[in-house]
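Appendix B. Raw example, untouched.
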Amino acid sequence: MTITAPSIDQHIAALRPKLIAFARLQLRDSAAAEDTVQDTLIIALEKHDSFAGRSAFETWVFGILKNKILERIRYERRYLSWQESDQNDEDSFENLFQENGRWQPASKPHSWGEPDEILENASFWKLLDTCLLVLPDSIARVFTMRELMGLTTQEICEALSLSDSNCWVMLHRARLKLRSCIEKGWLT
């Protein structure tokens, strides 16, 4: 499937805000997100003739962006220092559960309502975006690589030089923090 020049410009213009938002969420740096999206769009424009139409154009461009984000993360991992943050919350994590492994009564998850209705609610998605933005950078990066980019834990561990167990702990912490944030914003 070939997209004509005016059409490719329109597709790119429509996609750019979504690409920027995704890259900012993943990279946590507006300048890096802009650069990465710019690189993505250059490749999409240069290679749009090779777009075969086996997927939606948006999916194809997001695939390019995901690869560019991974390249940037690998580069930063190699040449910049990785700072583990928020690794000192073991006490709060341990206080969520009783000795028998069950939830503490005050920490037990609350019902959010019907899942299908919640997923169709724009307010929920805004709250989720806000909660993702307040996660510590390292935890947010691992979570978004897993849940938004669809990478396996092995791919995440390789890209970020993490141990498998550290990756799973970070995913667990991200989910707990997101749950807490959403419950505070959604149920109150």
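End of appendix B.
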